[in-house]
Every structure is written in C-alpha cells, then in structure tokens.
C-alpha cells in the first residue's frame, strides 16, 4: 500500500510527533510512505528521515502553488491513500484532490471551534472531499458532527495514543535526573511540556507559579519545549526574580526523563484536542493540573488524579498548585490514580493500518 501524508508543520508538536510514530509503524509493516510538509522542514522531519521516511517540503507563500505541488505529488506517487493532518494541510489536500478518485483521510489534531468563522465555513464547504475523518478526541468528533455538519457515518473516533515503551515511571531515572539538576529530595517540581506559544498560555502558568514560589521558595518549574514566547517568558522570569527556580529546557528528545524528574504536570492551554503531553504525563504517574479545554477533563478527573481549572484563571491555578505542594499524600494518591487512568490509553497504530486497508478495499464501516 502507498500512503501520502500531508501535514502543515514538522516542528515539534503533538500532531507532528503522532505522525512520526505513525509513519514509522506503517513503513515497518511494508507500506510505501511519503510525507509532504506545507512549511519548511523542522525537527520532526529530521526524526522521520532517520527512520527511513521520505519527507519533502512544498513550502510556498502562494496557496495555489502549494495546491499545485500536492496535485503533482499525487500524480507521480500514485498513493492508495492521502492522509492529511492539521488545518492548512487538510484544506489544501481537499482542494488538490477535488475532482479525482483519491481516497482522502483527514485527522484534524486541532480545535476547529477556535478558528475564525470564515475558516470554519471553508471547512464545512470542503469536507465533502473526505473519504473519512479520523477524530483524535471526543470533543473534536462531537464538534465536527454537531456544528460542522459532518456525516456521522464518515467520522471515526480514534483517540490519540503514545508509545508506552518510551514513557513509564522510573524511580532510578527520577533520582538521577534530580541529582543532575541539584534538586533536593523534598523539592517539588512542576513541569509543562508544550510549545512556548500563546495558545499554550505559558504566561498564566508563570504567574500562577510565582504566587506559589513566593509562599514556597523551594518549588521549581521546568518548561520542556520551544517557541515564539520564549523572549517574553525570559523577560518575565528575570523581572520576577525567578531566574534560579524556572528552567526553560527547550526541546528535548528524552521527555520521559524530565517527566520522571517532576512531581506535578501542568498544561494551561487556551485550546486543545487531546494533547500527547498529557497522556505521557499520565503514563509516568503524575498528578495533572489542566485547563478545561478539549478532551483534557475526560482524562483528568477533578480531585482524583489532578485538578481542572478554567483557562487563564491564575488565582484558581495558584490554589491548586499550592494544594499539591502542601499535601504530599494527595500528590502520591493522585499519581497512582493517573497510572490507573493511563491503562485506558489504547494503541491506535494497529487501528490506523486496519482503517487504511478497509478504506482501500471499500469495506470500512464505523462498526469495524
């Protein structure tokens, strides 16, 4: 089987990481795989190339040029399936495949409800090109069917998943990493794994953490990720006197080590679908404090394995972080509950390959 993947970006992000894992698995199963990226190639493209995946940038400032390049790649590669991810790639792929017999699968990996009205209207108009929509979260599937008027028989819910061999609780690793950073055994470490981007709202977390730090000077905060908000964050950290207690670690290949070093995972995003970083934190057994967006409240049961707050509510977030600093038994119990919740994370790689086969054969149904 030949599969042509189209994605908006190959910078480090949840959708990009998911594509890297998927292409590796699909390629190992004997399928021929190629990836087209709408933007210039990023770190995830390098990772996919190391895995033997052909990745090509079709970057252009002219949308018509990008669409033409996709058409040319489809014509030359002759894929059995085109699989597009993220908004721009999906819309371009739809336009490029219009009028052809190409079987097009789309996976959003974003919250369409936060897009401007005209873009939502465009999506509603072009969705007829899709053979199948694979929604990576319940909130995505629900919105597409109820508000974008997608045919429910062409929407399949397949939640995001992670490689459980790469993420696991490891006490020895925890001790090694904390020693490397010089953390005391009783130091409480918060961690956020996300792009340093406005949509992830890192400033809300910095301000809430400052409130906690003023009360508990021994706490530490680690950001794993990179992005355009770095300069703004560095300025706030410097002006707040928190240079020695906030670590901007940048992009890291060994995220499992950082998660094991931490005591609490925090993700204050303004919008999400189902972030891989949250699933990874659950798998490591961390209490999780998340904003009430996307599917995150489905995975963080308020008061059981973490806390849920309204986006940008600095006061409430501060309170929840304080509670977890001051109550070790609560942290430990919530961590165990996170491990239990992580048992519900399923392997979607096998499911995807079954979907591909059924779509190509024309035998796909939502009940399969």
Q: Features of this protein?
A:
Rossmann fold; 368 residues; 7-stranded parallel beta sheet; 15 helices; single chain
Offer a concise description of the structure.
Helix content is 45%, strand content 16%. By secondary structure, it is of the alpha/beta class. A seven-stranded parallel sheet has the order 3-2-1-4-5-6-7, with helices on both faces. The chain has a six-stranded parallel sheet with strand order 10-9-8-11-12-13, sandwiched between helices.
At CATH level 3, the topology of the largest domain is Rossmann fold
Radius of gyration computed on alpha carbons:
21 Å
Q: Could you estimate the helical fraction of the residues in percent?
A: 40-55%
Tell me the major beta sheet: 7 strands, parallel
Distance between the termini: 20 Å
Under CATH, the homologous superfamily of the largest domain reads Glycogen Phosphorylase B
Mean pLDDT, to the nearest integer, reads: 95
What ranges have pLDDT less than 50 throughout 5 or more consecutive residues? none
Number of helices: 15
CATH architecture of the largest domain: 3-Layer(aba) Sandwich
Shape designation: elongated
Task: Give the topology string: H per helix, E per strand.
Answer: EHEHEHEHEHEHEHEHEHEHEHEHEHHH
Which strands sit side by side, in order, in the main sheet? 3-2-1-4-5-6-7
Number of domains: 2
Question: Strand fraction band?
Answer: 15-25%
- CATH class designation of the largest domain: Alpha Beta
By DSSP, the count of extended strands is: 13
**Structural class by sheet pairing and helices:** alpha/beta
């Amino acid at each position: 089987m030949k599969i042509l993947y189209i994605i908006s970006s190959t910078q480090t992000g949840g959708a990009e990481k998911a594509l890297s894992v998927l292409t590796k698995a699909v390629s190992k199963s004997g399928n021929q795989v190629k990836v087209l990226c709408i933007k210039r190639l990023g770190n995830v493209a390098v990772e996919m190339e190391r895995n033997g995946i052909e990745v090509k940038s079709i970057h252009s400032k002219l949308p018509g040029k990008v669409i033409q390049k996709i058409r040319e790649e489809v014509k030359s590669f002759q894929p059995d399936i085109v699989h597009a991810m993220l908004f721009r790639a999906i819309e371009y792929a739809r336009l490029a495949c219009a009028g052809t017999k190409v079987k097009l699968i789309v996976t959003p990996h974003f919250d369409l409800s936060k897009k401007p009205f005209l873009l939502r209207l465009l999506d509603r108009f072009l969705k007829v090109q899709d053979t199948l929509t694979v929604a990576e979260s319940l909130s995505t599937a629900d919105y597409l069917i109820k508000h974008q008027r997608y045919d429910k028989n062409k929407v399949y819910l397949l939640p995001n998943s992670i490689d459980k061999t790469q993420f696991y609780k490891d006490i020895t690793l925890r001790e090694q990493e904390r020693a490397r950073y010089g953390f005391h055994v009783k130091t409480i470490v918060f961690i956020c794994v996300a792009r340093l981007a406005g949509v992830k709202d890192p400033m809300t977390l910095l301000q809430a953490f400052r409130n906690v730090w003023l009360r508990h000077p021994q706490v530490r905060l680690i950001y794993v990720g990179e992005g355009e908000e770095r300069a703004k964050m560095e300025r706030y950290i410097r002006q707040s006197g928190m240079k020695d207690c906030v670590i901007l670690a940048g992009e890291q290949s060994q995220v499992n080590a950082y998660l094991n070093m931490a005591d609490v995972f925090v993700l204050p995003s303004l919008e999400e679908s189902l972030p891989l970083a949250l699933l990874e934190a659950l798998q490591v057994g961390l209490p999780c404090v998340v904003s009430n967006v996307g599917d995150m409240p489905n995975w963080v049961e308020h008061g059981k394995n973490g806390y849920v707050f309204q986006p940008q509510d600095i006061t409430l977030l501060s309170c929840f972080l304080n509670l977890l600093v001051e109550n070790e038994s609560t942290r430990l119990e919530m961590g165990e509950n996170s491990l239990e919740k992580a048992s519900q994370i399923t392997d979607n790689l096998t499911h995807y390959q079954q979907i591909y086969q059924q779509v190509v054969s024309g035998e796909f149904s939502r009940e399969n």
